[in-house]
Design brief:
The complex is a heterodimer of chains A (about 300) and B (about 230). Chain A has about 300 residues and is an all-alpha fold. Helix content of chain A is about 85%, strand content about 0%. Chain B has eight helices and nine strands. Classes of the chains: A mainly alpha (about 300), B alpha/beta (about 230).
């Protein structure tokens, strides 16, 4: 009788972390290296150029935008790398053969894998935030005459998509807006909110999206990275195109001539929100379906 | 006891590596699993250990490896030909492996490391190929499971180490333990195995005790019988 044992999950986790300590260290060093290189490249190039050619008041914002863009891509790349590494570790190659024959039920091994994944995932996210604030700190040291904190916070709001938090903060501070000079008073509150949201809202949505990627990784046996990333991007694009087509059909049948400008604007906003959330939810449904088929295949083979 | 009827496995379904294998291996013996390269010896061990899912009926000690039950996994240890290497000492490796196997024996580990002259405090990645192999074999033997499956265990070992390995495995033999050693280096198993199983393209072409083989072929020289059966001059 296979009963779930917390002790065995603990033993499997200790086994994993002890054996993977070194490769994890290497991965973190590589990821940090990528972050730091991008930051230095962006900062020194753009700032030096900016000092000569553009109005310095625009420099913080421009660099914040660039950092945000680079960090976002580096963050996604890091998570894709970590996901692929972990999936390969559990599903393929020599380590997987050893792991499959280790004592433990499938559920225990799955829980172990998810804990591993969550820890590494949150680790990368926290690293991302730390690096972002370090960059802004570096910028402040290099050019203290410019108001870096204000722009960093403004970008921070976009990075974590804090529309709601932003609104509440604005209300709480009597109409002060992020980007206004008075914002420095609310820096601590904003930072606290940033971290709390980072630890909940952002990982939640990202986890759904990357759970789908994880399932794709498990589905392929060879060239996992290329195939999984290609399928991940292709399905996301497919659903977005599908939504746009649906929207076009809807608009064509909705007599738009009678719409006011505000109605069109509201409709577009809702459509964009739908695209945004569906791009997370729909892949999850498809991912679930693929996982079901995958299990069916394994089950059929096991008969 | 290991039993298999019509066992089939293929990495690609249309091209099975193991084809309709019938096998009967009573417990308490050391089996030499022989065959040419690429004939499916490693695959057979992986299927029996539950790492790969085969088709047909097969059980190890009455348990279906495909179900990957904890009790089954605690009763069998596969030593693959090439194991993943980690940057840790064998002591640390043993520390995290011990809780997973209720039968784990520190005494066997110490004895195996001593006899094979493996330093317990040296990192695996800093060892030579032969030392790595010996360290990982020592760890697997220390798991002290009733079923031990070894895939080409003597590859990379020097002659004195091979001798120590034979002695070590011989010390572990008892009525409750079944050891299967897959190899294409027949000489390495001399004096160690008491049953021989030979695989060929058509499946198992011989599976018998050395005594029965002696009576049937007039010699207990495994190499000679192997060459005769697989038509090697």
């Amino acid at each position: 009788m296979n009963t779930f044992s917390i002790n065995r999950v603990g033993a499997l986790l200790r086994y994993d972390w002890t054996l993977s300590k070194q490769s994890l260290k290497h991965t973190l060093v590589i990821i940090s290296g990528i972050y730091i290189s991008l930051v230095l490249l962006t900062f020194f190039t753009k700032y030096e150029v900016g000092m000569v050619n553009i109005d310095t008041t625009g420099v913080p914002e421009a660099i914040s935008v660039l950092c945000y863009t680079f960090f976002s891509y580096a963050n996604i790349a890091a998570i894709l790398v970590v996901t692929t590494l972990l999936t390969q570790k559990f599903c393929y190659s020599r380590t997987a053969t050893a792991y499959l024959t280790l004592p433990g039920t499938s559920l225990e091994k799955f829980v172990t894998m998810m804990i591993d994944y969550l820890v590494v995932f949150l680790g990368v996210k926290v690293l991302y935030v730390v690096m972002f604030y370090l960059t802004m700190g570096l910028c402040s040291l290099y050019a203290p005459e410019l108001d870096w904190a204000q722009n960093a916070l403004a970008m921070d709001s976009q990075i974590f998509r804090f529309d709601e938090v932003h609104t509440k903060l604005t209300e709480a501070f009597d109409g002060d807006k992020i980007g206004d000079s008075t914002l420095s008073q609310s820096f601590a509150n904003d930072l606290a909110s940033t971290i709390s949201t980072l630890l909940w809202t952002t990982p939640f949505w990202s986890l759904i999206s990357f759970a789908y990627y994880l399932i794709l990784c498990m589905f392929f046996r060879t060239n996992v990275q290329v195939k999984a990333i290609a399928t991940y991007v292709a399905t996301n694009m497919m659903f977005t195109i599908l939504l746009i087509i649906t929207a076009i059909i809807f608009i064509a049948n909705a007599e738009p001539d009678t719409w006011t400008g505000e109605e069109v604007y509201n409709f577009a906003t809702t459509l964009m929100a739908t695209v945004r959330y569906t791009s997370y939810a729909t892949p999850l449904i498809v991912g679930g379906l693929l996982y079901f088929l995958y299990n069916q295949m394994c089950h059929k083979q096991a008969k | 006891m290991i039993k298999a009827h019509n066992l089939t496995y293929g990495y690609i379904q249309v091209q099975p590596v193991l084809k309709h294998i019938d096998l009967d291996m009573p417990a308490g013996h050391v089996y030499g699993l022989l065959g040419r390269n690429g004939i499916g010896k490693s695959t057979m061990l992986k299927v029996l250990s539950g790492a790969l899912i085969g088709q047909g009926d097969y059980t190890v000690d009455g348990r279906d490896p495909r179900r990957r039950e904890v009790e089954f996994q605690q009763s069998i240890r596969l030593i693959p030909e090439n194991e993943a290497l980690y940057d840790i000492t064998i002591q640390d490796y043993a520390r995290v492996t011990r809780p997973l196997y209720p039968t784990f024996s520190d005494e066997i580990l110490r004895q195996a490391l001593d006899e094979l002259h493996v330093p317990a405090d040296q990192k695996l990645t800093n060892m030579s190929l032969g030392q790595q192999k010996k360290a990982l074999i020592s760890l697997s033997l220390a798991c002290n499971t009733p079923y031990i499956l070894m895939d080409e265990p003597t590859n990379g070992m020097d002659i004195p180490s091979k001798s120590c390995f034979r002695k070590l495995v011989a010390n572990m033999i008892d009525e409750q333990r079944t050891i299967i050693i897959s190899t294409h280096q027949v000489d390495d198993l001399e004096g160690l195995i008491d049953y021989v199983t030979i695989m060929e393209n058509d499946g198992i072409i011989l599976s018998d005790s050395l005594e029965a083989i002696g009576q049937k072929y007039g010699t207990e020289d495994i190499k000679q019988v192997f060459c005769q059966l697989v038509n090697i001059e």
